[in-house]
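Student:
Attend to each token:
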Amino acid sequence: MDTFAAQPDPDILGRRVREMIDAGKLNAARAVLAALGRLAPPGPTTAELSARLALAAGQLDRAAAELDLAVAAAPTHAGLRRLRADVRHRRGEHVPAAIDAAEAVALDPHDASGKAILGVLMTELGRPADAVACLTEAVGAEPANPAFVEALAAAQAAGGDTDRASATLAAGIARVPGRVELRNAAVLMAIRRRDFAAAHSLAEAARRIGVADACLFGLLGHSLSCLGRHEEATEAYDSALKLGPHDPYVRHLVAASGALPGADRAPSPYVRAVFEGYADRFEQHLVALGYRIPGRFRAVLQRLAPWTGREDCGPTLDLGCGTGLVGLAVHDLPVGPLHGVDLAPRMLARAAAKGVYAELREADVLTVLAEPAPLYGLILAADVLCYFGTLEPLLTAAHARLRAGGLMLVSTESPATDDTAPPPWRLGRQGRYAHTEAYLRAAAEAAGFTVRELGPEVQRFENDIPVPGLLAVLARS
């Protein structure tokens, strides 16, 4: 009797590799992929699986290199184009990623994932109308996909239609009520609109159906704190901390509530999350609050410049540049070229659109200040110190990046307290730090600065009440 050895099916092996990658079983996936490679000739499928495996392992450069070769060999393969768009997006290469995503959609017009990736990229490239068109089709094809729904709401909000964005999230929650990411997005949307009552209602609705998520309870605490219900907020923050004891966003909000000792700075993920969501209405909101600091910085520079005796007092480093309000206020003074740094990509995109910066970087300000070069003639820090408690590390690093005779202008909030001996800094319930005048002076002098000017300055108005603060001019001798 003849016997035949069973021949493995390449399609089945390919599906197994995908399942293992999705389950996080990367070593097993590598073994099966190696078996598939011995069984089938190299082609788009094996190349795509190999790149997905590299991506799952965090090897972005390797995934990108493999996909470059695979796309060159099979330029009309929609799956390879779509995957390379994802990899390029993760590497911050938004324009090449958008080109790949558009090619993927053209090659396979029925692929909802390709349309979703293209829509996300259009949002990040400042084209919300195109993003909404792509993502509407993606959601139409897969209405229960929470990532597609959340991306569509983000695109609508980026276009200024927050009512429609909230409605999109509500419809998504109705379709898949158990998806916590949609509920969190809806609560966060309400907070960004400063509708804290709605945020509280949405968070409570999620809690009532049994959602147990650290971020949700953190947002619930934030909304309660903004409504003045601080005892209830502390209870919500306590629940958040139990569910996510190591989450930096949660820990910072809990510290702000007073339930934890105050950390000495706001974590970078917290700041990035806050301002990524705030980018679309940042300037409108600050103008409505009577934000004064960019104009005050300009007035100080006009009065003092040229402080080095030179016609050109730059280059200038704008720390936490946000959407570029300070750069816009000072760019016509002899302080160029302007370099900006911020954690939030969407804030940087709006700063770039102003056309006043020679260079913009997405990075933590302390990381940039720790670099050895270049030296600057001017460093600006408008509303940056309010995300740091202890100021000495930042000021010392800034002092090292100034050339002799250079200036640093800083603004910060000061504690609204009648205490006769307030602490040097205090973390407020909104997650921002306030500093005393005596501490700011001592920290600046300890960093090596000469304090040329330091005095009270109203930062903005909230509920028609002035927010007290300080403005300082620091010089490197």
Remarks:
- The radius of gyration is 26 Å.
- Residues 1-5 have pLDDT under 50 and may be disordered.
- The domain at 7-109 is CATH 1.25.40.10 (Serine Threonine Protein Phosphatase 5, Tetratricopeptide repeat).
